[in-house]
TrEMBL record:
Coiled coil: 96-123
Function: Acts as a component of the essential kinetochore-associated NDC80 complex, which is required for chromosome segregation and spindle checkpoint activity.
SUBUNIT field: Component of the NDC80 complex.
Organism of provenance: Trichodelitschia bisporula
Name of the protein in its database record: Kinetochore protein Spc24
Domain of life: Eukaryota
GO molecular function: microtubule binding
GO CC annotation terms, alphabetical: microtubule organizing center; Ndc80 complex; nucleus
Keyword Ubl conjugation attached: no
GO annotation terms (biological process): cell division; chromosome segregation
Keywords, sorted A to Z: Cell cycle, Cell division, Centromere, Chromosome, Coiled coil, Kinetochore, Mitosis, Nucleus
Amino acid sequence: MLLDEDPSVLIRNCIQNFTITPDKSSLTRISDSLSTLHTTRSHRLTSHRQALKSLNRQLSTLQSTHALTVSAHNPGSHAAEILRLDTEKFRVAKEASEMEIEGERLEAEIARAREAVDEVEEQGVEGGDKAREGMEDEILLKLKVYRMLNIDVEPDRETGLYSKAVVRNPTKGDVHVVNIDQKFSRYFYANYFWNTMA
């Protein structure tokens, strides 16, 4: 009878009918894979925790900086500074425009003065044909040039020499009376007149 046999023999015969070696190998591989997965997961969690701590520290620093910036910012003074800078910008632009207009005016005056000087030089000391035909002589031409530059020259009553000049600056509304002394050079007076008219 089957039950009359020794149970160990029965178990041994039963075991021989099952092939469990591949299953044991699969279980070992699964266990190794689970262990590796657990280790990798632990490392990743540790790395993410450290990155999170670093980001939290950065966030805290940025929040502190932002709070300090907001507390230090004064909207009223900022608006006043912007208004002041705008006003300064328009003032500088206006002055630049005025200087440009003044420069063009002075260039036109210089051009007129050069034309008058060229005309005088063409006629020479004794005057050319135009002077002989009744045109202005050298002194009258010089006086004309001076008048074009807003300079009136007055002769001395006793000597007849020109000893006084009245320099007008229409732009500034200034009038300067200059006594001409022979001890100063023509170059000195020319510079003085130009500076007065500028």
